[in-house]
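In the design runs reported in the main text, the only information available to the sequence generator was the tokenized backbone. The following block is the verbatim input for one such run; it is reproduced so that readers can re-run the procedure and compare outputs position by position.
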């Protein structure tokens, strides 16, 4: 694997995104993550997953410079790939804990929302669904996951504002479950992952499916239409100009 590092210890697998400074998401990252998750889904020794990033970013989201050269068709195919991944994670039969080690932005935030529990590092790190700030939309699936965790009112505030939230602010909105210092982030994530792993796996998987099956079905039903709408807005003159001027902020 080029961009996803996997480490297994005591039944818990830690998947770390390691792609440049900001862990930007592209097809290779998504494909590698899916391959590993499917392998660990079949592995009876794996009881829980921790998803984290390398450095000061969990993920800045989509690799926009790479996508500037994509045709509409190529970009649409990427979005199908990406949304299929977060839908898979949202319904994954084993526990998935997100250890948000740094900035968690846009597509990175969507990936985190697919997980069962999010612990975020305190300090300068920010989390956001900031698409509206540069004139882009979001997806049906990401909206459903956000509502699941944050409720309709907070989801509306988060999406309409496009604000960058600190870990404490995000906890208040339901974007994350707990906040930890940098030194304690992975310990906190492992504690939660171990707690999940101690549950009888068939019971956990059954209850998770009962909680989410109808939501996953709704995500799948509406996703393709929302992707087309996303693409149409993304390639509109105003949004396309804004996208080309996006700059990554310092951690």
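Verbatim output:
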């Amino acid at each position: 694997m080029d961009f996803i590092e996997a480490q297994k210890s005591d039944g818990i697998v830690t998947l770390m995104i390691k792609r440049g400074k900001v862990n930007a998401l592209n097809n290779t990252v998504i494909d590698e993550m899916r391959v590993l998750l499917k392998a660990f889904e079949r592995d009876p020794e794996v009881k829980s997953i921790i998803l984290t990033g390398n450095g000061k970013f969990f993920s800045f989201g989509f690799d926009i410079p790479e996508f500037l050269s994509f045709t509409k068709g190529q970009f649409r195919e990427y979005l199908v790939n990406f949304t299929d991944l977060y839908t898979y994670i949202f319904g994954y039969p084993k526990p998935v804990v997100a250890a948000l080690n740094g900035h968690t932005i846009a597509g990175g935030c969507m990936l985190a929302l697919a997980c069962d529990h999010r612990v975020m590092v305190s300090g300068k790190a920010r989390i956001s669904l900031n698409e509206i700030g540069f004139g882009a939309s979001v997806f049906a699936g990401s909206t459903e996951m956000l509502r699941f965790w944050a409720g309709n009112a907070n989801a509306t505030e988060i999406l309409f504002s496009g604000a960058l939230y600190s870990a404490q602010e995000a906890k208040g909105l339901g974007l994350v479950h707990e906040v930890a210092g940098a030194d304690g982030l992975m310990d906190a994530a492992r504690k939660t992952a171990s707690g999940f792993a101690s549950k009888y796996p068939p019971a956990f998987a059954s209850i998770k499916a009962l909680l989410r099956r109808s939501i996953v079905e709704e995500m799948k039903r509406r996703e393709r239409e929302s992707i087309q709408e996303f693409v149409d807005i993304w390639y509109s003159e105003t949004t396309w100009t804004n996208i080309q001027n996006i700059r990554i902020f310092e951690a």
